[in-house]
């Protein structure tokens, strides 16, 4: 088959599923399997999402883990709630906040976020929800090509921060990886809740690992951590309400760009749409350091030239993270992302727990987002949700750090302005603005138009990790369904 034929075939690989109980889309097939099992056993969309997230933390340590964060939007009978599972930098100041090592670690938020979301929305016991991940950790996971490649690429870095004895580093693709320490930690969390992670022996191990490698994390930082529950930032979108994660995430940048598009919908046509999306996202990213202002940023005008590229740049080159979206027959819908930020986060390994820690302090920049003690840096995780006037909701999320806002806007705009079905919009070719360049899949139909408008293009292979991997789930007429990307390992399932 010719190369162009191979790419067309790959673009048909995304999947969709509809179920009676619920549906789920997630960043790994085993995560979907776990979520479907939970739905089949009577769990709801939140239970399924946590089960899937826990499996991702077990089989994709390069992307997510209990040393990282979780942010989610949950639509229930009372409306949409934002679960902010991201921690602060240590209260003890540091002379510098690097992008790796102990000084880059903020308090991991995922465990308390699980407990917080489960108390409010969960149905099944947490032990049952975490059982699939515990089983994989205890009986083993055969190393896949992506994990093996990430280990090879990051071996030197994570070895410097305590991972040299980690069994994972010595395994080849296809070999069985058993994680007894992680299995024990998950079981402890299921029994004792947040205390099993943020106090006692686990907390002491976390602090010891961070301080050994130049950080300032203290027992008090962990004990005082709390998940933030709040309302989402919202804006109109073609008669629906677009909900995004509030501060400290940069989800508001998606709302800013969408708000501009909604107000200028009459100026959009398929010929200039992709250019307008590039310019709108770059204009929004100029306000990233002020993301803590939240909905107030929607009142700011965005300067968008509808004809020529302005080369403002702005978005940065970060990758990874994994998404989970789930819906159920009762109308509960979850849009979520889990992450340790960079590949294997800070690189700091905690042998007693079998996890690596995040490097979210690497997200500090300048201005209002300048580094400092006890601060939450602007966070890249930006799950989103559309709530229609009839009550149906659609969750969308993608990995890709600064690419998340750009990818989701392209998908939403294709559905609205291109009249494309959601699966087609997710499969379609994408671009990503980054460091003054426009990275673009080589089969994108707008390459010549974007080049003529002055964009500095760099063509990449379709499906490159830089272009994200969308997960989506929701309800239509009350029926739960899910749709997945063809990129990375994303897939769907239903019960």
Explain what you see.
- With 495 residues, this protein is α+β, with helices and mostly antiparallel strands.
- Mean pLDDT is 95; it is low at 1-9.
- It contains 15 helices and 21 strands.
- The chain has two domains: 20-229 and 344-368, no CATH class; 231-319 and 384-486, Glutamine Phosphoribosylpyrophosphate, subunit 1, domain 1, CATH 3.60.20.
- The longest helix has 19 residues, at 145-163.
- β8 (233-237) and β9 form a beta hairpin.
- It is globular.
Count all strands and give the number.
Answer: 21
* Mean pLDDT over the residues: 95
In this structure, how is the largest beta sheet organized? 7 strands, antiparallel
SSE class: alpha+beta
The percentage helix is: 25-40%
Number of helices: 15
Count of folded domains: 2
Report the C-alpha radius of gyration, rounded.
Answer: 21 Å
**pLDDT < 50 stretches:** 1-9
Strand content: 15-25%
Taking the alpha carbons of the first and last residues, their distance comes to 36 Å
Q: Numbering strands along the chain, what is their spatial order in the largest sheet?
A: 1-20-19-15-14-9-8
Spatial shape: globular
Topology of this structure?
Layout: H1 3-10, E1 16-18, E2 22-26, H2 29-40, H3 45-59, E3 69-76, E4 79-85, H4 110-121, H5 126-139, E5 141-142, H6 145-163, E6 176-177, H7 180-192, H8 195-198, H9 200-212, H10 219-223, E7 228-230, E8 233-237, E9 240-244, H11 251-263, H12 273-285, E10 322-328, E11 333-339, E12 349-350, E13 355-356, E14 384-387, E15 393-397, H13 403-417, H14 422-427, E16 431-434, E17 437-441, H15 447-452, E18 457-460, E19 471-476, E20 479-484, E21 491-494
Parallel strand pairs: 17-18
Antiparallel strand pairs: 1-20, 2-10, 2-21, 3-4, 3-11, 4-7, 5-6, 8-9, 9-14, 10-11, 12-13, 14-15, 15-19, 16-17, 19-20
Helix pairs in contact: 2-3, 3-5, 5-7, 11-12, 11-13, 12-13
